[in-house]
């Protein structure tokens, strides 16, 4: 065979990635279980590049140059395993199977182990940027062996998005499931970013009394500053949109029940297992869950709350500036939490992930792309051992400057009964990290009281237990 890469699974993502490879000069073999999709691709886009259509797995494998590079773009889960089972007998040692679907990183670890037994490289690749990114240049997060990256990396670098400085938005993240893990946390951060923006909108609407169109204008203003990002940009577009059927703001005719596909939930589940507090991401996932409980919300509408009082014009403008501060500071916290999770995952699974490199490849192509990521990259590049982004001097200065406004916004939201779980959780995390003493000492006392779980003292080495049911003297534990 002569095709440099093959793509099997030609729904929107696979088709667009295949076209992206072809547009970049690669000879691409294409295959889909339902052959009509393969023919449709050739008919519609065959002129864009050098495609080889394959109607059977055998034809597909035969079309590929050796060692083969075969990208699987089917529905994540069982279909991925089915496709792997189908192709493995047709492959040889040294071939590279790439899974570009949204796989759970534990599945990727298992598949990598299983294929390694056959001498086949399995590369789990996180791809962000949706349909358009797949075609125009996504952010690509490849895991797998170093050896497989040597063969695959240069091709991925060609089809990936490019940051403003020209750097391709892909890099070898680490072995086995590292790429899918980082993609998962990317999506968790995306949930948090979206939730924080939604809370800012809610406050500007309910407390400042702004219309959706005015909030769109406010966001456009923010988008020229430090919050400059794809998500703020599209939020302004959505808010400025008017529903054609009713003439109302689009946002007012959409049901307020947020859905989710599961990667945010995976991020939180994994964070719980790793013991990493990703409270901002968790609140974002829970906020979507809460919104979906329609019956519960309907029943609870009778619960008392404060009477909302909309601010006057001058106060509203000052309040909007404070919301920008709260949004920015909360965003820094979300990223600090997400990067903490990546570091912890890297340590737990032995991945040795370059955090600055992760920030670098999120600068373009993906949903959370933002000017902000350049600052995160710079923070890790200048201090690779940085334990939290919040401790980077620049972020520390900015959150410090923002804190008065951040606190005022969270307090005003509580006073007016506007739910801001993201802002509030971010602030609580910030204060939790800052605290000289946490009430965890009391928690330890409670645990020792009811379960003899023991505690450590501030003044002496060792573990101790107090005889709570007896004379309350202290004894060394163990
Ligand atoms: P889908 O997730 O809708 O999957 C459809 C494809 O899977 C079709 O090609 C279908 O073949 C194939 N397929 C299925 Br379903 N079961 C199969 C089986 N047992 N054997 C062989 N093929 C099978 O496609 P998509 O929306 O293009 O997404 C592809 C992957 O990319 C998914 O993992 C998804 O989670 C991920 N994704 C990522 C993003 C992103 O922004 N990064 C966006 C969207 C999707 P058929 O035509 O014969 O039914």
From TrEMBL:
The keyword Chloroplast does not apply. It catalyses: 6-phospho-D-gluconate + NADP(+) = D-ribulose 5-phosphate + CO2 + NADPH. InterPro entries: 6-PGluconate_DH-like_C_sf, 6PGD_dom2, 6PGDH_C, 6PGDH_Gnd/GntZ, 6PGDH_NADP-bd, 6PGdom_BS, NAD(P)-bd_dom_sf, Pgluconate_DH. Substrate binds at residues 102, 128-130, 186-187, 191, 261, 288, 447, 453. NADP(+) binds at residues 9-14, 32-34, 74-76, 102. Pathway: Carbohydrate degradation; pentose phosphate pathway; D-ribulose 5-phosphate from D-glucose 6-phosphate (oxidative stage): step 3/3. Pfam families: 6PGD, NAD_binding_2. SMART domains: 6PGD. Keywords: Gluconate utilization, NADP, Oxidoreductase, Pentose shunt. Catalyzes the oxidative decarboxylation of 6-phosphogluconate to ribulose 5-phosphate and CO(2), with concomitant reduction of NADP to NADPH. Belongs to the 6-phosphogluconate dehydrogenase family. Homodimer. This is 6-phosphogluconate dehydrogenase, decarboxylating. It comes from Streptomyces nitrosporeus. The lineage of its organism: Bacteria, Bacillati, Actinomycetota, Actinomycetes, Kitasatosporales.
């Amino acid at each position: 065979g002569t095709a440099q890469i093959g793509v099997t699974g030609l729904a929107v993502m696979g088709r667009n990635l295949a076209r992206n490879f072809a547009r970049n000069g690669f000879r691409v073999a294409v295959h889909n279980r339902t052959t009509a999709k393969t023919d449709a691709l050739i008919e519609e886009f065959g002129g864009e590049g050098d495609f080889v259509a394959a109607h059977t797995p055998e034809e597909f494998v035969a079309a590929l140059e050796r060692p083969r590079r075969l990208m699987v773009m089917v529905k994540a889960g069982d279909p991925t395993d089915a496709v792997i089972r189908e192709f493995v007998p047709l492959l040889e040692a040294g071939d590279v199977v790439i899974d570009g679907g949204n796989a759970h990183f534990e599945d990727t670890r298992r598949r990598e182990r299983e294929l390694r037994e056959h001498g086949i490289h399995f590369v789990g690749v996180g791809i962000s940027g949706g349909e358009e990114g797949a075609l125009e240049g996504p952010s690509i997060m490849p895991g797998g062996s170093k050896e497989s990256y040597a063969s695959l990396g240069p091709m991925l670098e060609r089809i990936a998005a490019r940051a403003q400085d020209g750097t391709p938005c892909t890099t070898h993240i680490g072995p086995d499931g590292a790429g899918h893990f980082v993609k998962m946390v990317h999506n968790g951060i995306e949930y948090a970013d979206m939730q924080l923006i939604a809370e800012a909108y809610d406050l500007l609407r309910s407390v400042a009394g702004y219309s959706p169109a005015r909030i769109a204008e406010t966001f456009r203003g923010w988008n020229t500053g430090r919050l400059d990002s794809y998500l703020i940009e599209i939020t302004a577009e959505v808010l400025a949109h008017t529903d054609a059927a009713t003439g109302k703001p689009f946002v007012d005719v959409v049901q307020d029940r947020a859905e989710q596909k599961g990667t945010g939930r995976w991020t939180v589940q994994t964070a719980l297992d790793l013991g990493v507090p990703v409270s901002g991401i968790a609140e974002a996932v829970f906020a979507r869950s809460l919104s979906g409980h329609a019956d519960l919300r309907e029943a609870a509408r009778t619960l008392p709350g404060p009477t909302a009082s909309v601010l006057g014009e001058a106060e509203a403008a000052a309040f909007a500036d404070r919301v920008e501060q709260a949004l920015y500071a909360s965003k820094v916290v979300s990223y600090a939490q997400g990067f903490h999770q990546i570091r912890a995952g890297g340590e737990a699974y032995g991945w040795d992930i370059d955090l600055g490199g992760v920030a670098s490849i999120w600068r373009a192509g993906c949903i959370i792309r933002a000017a902000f990521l350049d600052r995160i990259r710079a923070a890790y590049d200048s201090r690779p051992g940085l334990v939290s982004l919040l401790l980077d001097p620049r972020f520390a200065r900015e959150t410090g400057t923002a804190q008065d406004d951040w606190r005022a916004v969270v307090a005003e939201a509580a006073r007016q009964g506007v739910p801001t779980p993201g802002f509030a959780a971010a602030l609580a995390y910030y204060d939790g990290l800052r605290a000289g003493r946490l009430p965890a000492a009391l928690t330890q006392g409670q645990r020792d009281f009811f379960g003899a779980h023991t505690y450590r003292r501030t003044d002496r080495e060792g573990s101790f237990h107090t005889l709570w049911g007896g004379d309350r003297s202290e004894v060394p534990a163990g």
